[in-house]
Amino acid sequence: MTGTASISATDTTEHRPAPATTTVTEPDIRPVTDDGDHDRFAHYTRRADANRAYVEGTPVRALCGKVWVPSRDPSRYPVCPECAKIRERLRKRAFN
Ligand SMILES: [Zn+2]
To answer: How far is the CA of 31 from the centre of ligand 1 (A)?
Structure first.
């Protein structure tokens, strides 16, 4: 299945300035991975938090409330169902 194909995972964002002309039509969130041993999901968190986490190693808070330090490629993991549900809700609100 390619349900997560539309989610782009970029590992080198710290080198680029944020594009100021991008039209934001949904919350500024991106998937990051759970670094736990058993609960291997890609959770959604705020892009700024994820970028800082990758650079400084600070923990992030996912939409579902999970707090951890992400370190792996999120594209290899299934999306956390709880985060997906919350993100869908945020998107609907953003389009209103
Ligand atoms: Zn989650």
So the answer is: 9
Instruction: Provide CB contacts within 8 A for 2, sequence distance 6+.
Output: none
Ion ligand 1 neighbours, Cβ < 5 Å: 43, 62, 64, 80, 82-83
Q: What tens-digit pLDDT sequence spans the chain (96 residues)?
A: 555 445 455 554 455 555 555 454 556 777 776 555 436 788 888 888 888 888 898 998 999 999 888 765 667 788 889 999 999 998 888 776
Quote the ligand 1 centre to 95 CA distance (angstroms): 22
Sign of the torsion angle spanned by Cα atoms 36, 16, 12, 75: positive
